[in-house]
Amino acid sequence: MLQKIWAIAYVNIYQTFTDRNLLIIMLLTPLILASIISLAFGNLSGSAPIENIPVAIVNLDSAPAEGSQVVDSSGILVASFIPVGEDGETAADGTASMGTCEAVQVEDAGGQNMSLTDLTDAVLLTDAAAARAAVDRGDYAAAIIIPAGFNDGISYTQDKPTLAPLPVEVYGDSAQPISASIIRSVVEGFTNQFLTGQIAVAATIGTMTERAQTNPVFGMSFAAAAASGSFQPNFACAFTPGFNTIAIEQQTVTGEQADFNPLVLFGSAQAVFFALFTANGVAVTIIEERRQWTLQRMVISPTPRVVILGGKLVAVFAVVLLQLIFLFIGFTVIGSLLEGQIKSVWGTDALAIAALVVATSLATAGVGMITAAVGKTAEQANIIGSVVSMLMGILGGAFFSVQALGDLEWVTRLSVVRWGAEGFSALAGGGSDISLNLVFLALIGAVLFVVSLVVFNRRQDI
Amino acid sequence: MHNGHKHALVEVRGLKKTFKRKDGTVVEAVKGIDLDIYRGEVFSLLGPNGAGKSTTISMLSGLLTPTEGEATIGGHSITRQPLEAKKLLGVVPQEIALYPTLSARQNLEFFGRMYGLSGSELSKSVDEVLDFIDLRDRHKDRIDTFSGGMKRRVNIGVGLLHKPQLVYMDEPTVGVDPQSRRRILDTVIRLKEERKMTVLYTTHLMEESQELSNRVGIIDYGQIIALGTVGELIQKVGEEDRLIFSVGEQQISDAVLERFRTEVPGITKATYAASEFTPVAGMEESAELVVEKRSTGTMRVARSGQVLDGEITVHAKRGRKALPELLRVADEMGVDILSVEVREPDLEAVFLHLTGRALRE
Ligand SMILES: Nc1ncnc2c1ncn2[C@@H]1O[C@H](COP(=O)(O)OP(=O)(O)OP(=O)(O)O)[C@@H](O)[C@H]1O
Ligand SMILES: [Mg+2]
To answer: Residue B281's domain spans which residues?
Structure first.
């Protein structure tokens, strides 16, 4: 019985993988398509840098009083995005202190330095609500809102020896998740620098004060300088991240810290999307073989119907599994070529990757079987399969980032493409908790298998 | 085996199949068939297109569930013990039931596995079948590169892989050239004589039935209208010869036929039939005279409505003996006989006798 199941599966696998046209559609098209979409997305491993991300900055904080030891961090943050002279009038407060500092350098994923002003196109706004609304409209990829009291919160002075940083809000456009996440990373980099800078300042001021107490000459000059406020700008440069270039830490749309690689996101979604087509195609051969009379020939042989259907089921699963394995290896090769080094774009948790590939194959095979089972004719089954595959592909993020759906995001949960692609993205980002994805995919696969077996078995014409 | 015949391998009782079409109409494809097929015989089901031959074969091979009735193979009910019954059975469907992109060998191997063959037993069987159908040298070629006749042979080979005692062959010569057809008929004879197999053979060609079968069942509109050996069936029509006189364009009066019937001894029936020339549609006015292209390759000019090929058919107990007398009467009546054909009684005549129609439309 198992031998017969395998014989049927083998014949189907063999026919699929000896059909050159089918192979092109199954294997080559998704590789090419995902690569093109990734490149179009503009950031395929640094080959096409993201530029001029529109950003709104709202500084609700006020510059510290003259002579205070508080550093104008909010001013520095604003000035980093909008240097003096570029938008002179609006970038009023605190920017003067940037005069002697170098433009902030950031390192993009490709390792090339580019200035923050190249990366972003920032505008200073005064109303936080208006800024958020503008982001919602899509005018800006993100709004950076610096809260009132930000400077005080992260400043260390003799009067206030503790740090109580207030969070800078980065309000991102969900339709531009990658741009928004880049801005978020930049701001995070800044605030971290401010904090570490302040800790250093705290240490320095502490030492200087100590020194001033022990060395009266130094003490006098220090006091004079402090009174004039003239050392502040120099310190400001020290806090500016430009001194230590920060890498843009990109984030995946799932929000986990990761090297964002569109190839991972679109590659996995496209792979699952095409696997759906393949699964449907192989499953539909059950109906096609009836026309070809090879199905009848099997029914005439002493082979129970359930064995025949079982063989087909194994075939659908195996073909999809082989296809996905090929595609994931293919994307690894493409990713490595673009990076110039051999690198697993899918992360390093081989066991989890394998488990996810298997679970995704089960789910796609299940979808393929059920779409074939409900079609009356082969043509009908193909059309149903194509429509379902397209819907799942669109909802699953094979063509655009699904976060763009905003409140409707739950709809994407109906797509096995989403569940698969999300899992692969998580693994690629170094995450490992994909158990929900695994369970869902395996379960949906199992349920659809059983249902389609029942449906097929009930059909009089099989 | 309640009918007492101990050699019946296949027993069919009251087998019926009714199809319901989507538009609600009901097709009674098989209206209740009873028959026994004995061990070692070639039994043919002879009937015109749509008679219900394939439907019967499908029910007897477990592909279609009978609406009513029952069939057993080697004592196993095809509906209640299908796996046991199917093991005894090889089927050659009317359609070429093969994977076109697989080679002949791959097809044979795959279907061999469906009959539980594997390993060396399988490859030995496949080799034997390839020899039997004479395709050993092409075994690695894909089926879709084969000629129609070669595909038919592979189609037959698949049915023989597991060396069944019984094989059904549903119109295995449909759509093949005369040479391939001869080959297939010889194959059937070899199956019966060399392998002592039981064969259920369906055809709409009476020559095939007549040559191959021990017994024939004539099927029409889903019913067996006659069953027996070829000899038994021919006796049914009274063993009359048919004499066919070609008279060309001559008009034959009833008087001629009347004289044939009354003056020549042993004549039971004399009829005249003629085909009239009808011009191709749309050419009626433009050409009163139309060029007719004849099947012999000759051309001739005919007038619309003109009689072309007239034929007098005479049924006689002993046709050859009556021939001189018939020719004499014709001569007296001024009828010019162009050619004469004497047809001895055959299954065609039996069918004609039973249904009033010719087997081949
Ligand atoms: N699945 C079906 N649904 C409806 N009608 C059917 C179906 N199968 C067969 N029939 C009808 O049943 C009748 C018998 O068909 P069948 O195929 O058994 O004839 P056959 O004797 O094999 O003819 P042929 O020589 O053309 O193969 C035909 O009228 C056919 O149209
Ligand atoms: Mg038929």
So the answer is: 239-344
**Partner residue facing B110 (CB), from A7, A292, A300:** A7
CB pairs under 8 A between A and B: 64
Residue A416 touches partner B, C-beta closer than 8 Å: no
- Position B223 scores a pLDDT of 94
Tokens of A412: 């994407």
- List CB contacts of B205: < 8 A, sequence separation 6 or more: B173, B359
A50 touches A183 (CB < 8 A): no
Residue B83 forms part of a structural domain: yes
Please state the pTM of the whole predicted model: 0.68
Number of domains in chain B: 2
| Assigned token pair, B241 | 């010869």
Is B131 contained in some domain?
no
Quick check: CB of B204 below 6 Å from ligand 1? yes
Residue B195 and residue B314 in one domain: no
C-alpha span between B111 and B143 (Å, rounded): 14
Q: Is B175 left (phi over 0), alpha (psi -120 to 50) or beta?
A: left
Pocket test for ligand 1, best of B27, B64, B201, B361 (most atoms within 8 A of CB): B27
| Burial letters A360-390, b for 16+ CB under 10 A, else e | bbbbbbbbbbbbbbbbeebeebbebbeebbe
pLDDT in tens, B94-136: 999 999 999 999 999 999 999 999 999 999 999 999 999 999 9
Residues of chain B that touch chain A, judged by Cβ-Cβ distance less than 8 Å: 61-63, 82-84, 86-87, 89, 91, 93, 95-102, 106, 110-111, 113-116, 118, 158
Q: Tell me, yes or no, whether B76 and B12 share the same domain.
A: yes
Q: Across the 462 residues of chain A, what is the mean pLDDT of every consecutive 10-residue run?
A: 93 93 86 79 46 85 76 80 58 39 47 62 88 86 86 72 75 70 73 64 56 57 50 40 34 38 82 92 91 94 92 95 94 83 80 92 94 89 91 83 68 87 83 85 94 84 58
Q: Does A21 touch chain B (CB under 8 A)?
A: no
One domain for residues B175 and B67: yes
* Domain assignment of residue B104, yes or no: no
How confident is the prediction for chain B on average, in pLDDT? 86
pLDDT at B287: 44
Alpha carbons within 13 A on the beta-carbon side of B63: 23
Phi, psi of B34 (to 5 degrees): -120, 125
Closest CA to B95 of A294, A377, A462: A294
Q: Which atom of ligand 1 is nearest to the CA of B55?
A: 18
Name the closest-CA residue to atom 12, ligand 1: B29
What CATH number does the domain containing B222 carry? 3.40.50.300
From atom 11 of ligand 1, which residue's Cα is the shortest distance away? Answer: B29
**ipTM value for the complex:** 0.78
Tell me the two tokens of residue B133.
């159908």
Question: A263-316 pLDDT, tens per residue?
Answer: 887 888 889 999 999 999 999 999 999 899 999 999 999 999 889 999 999 999
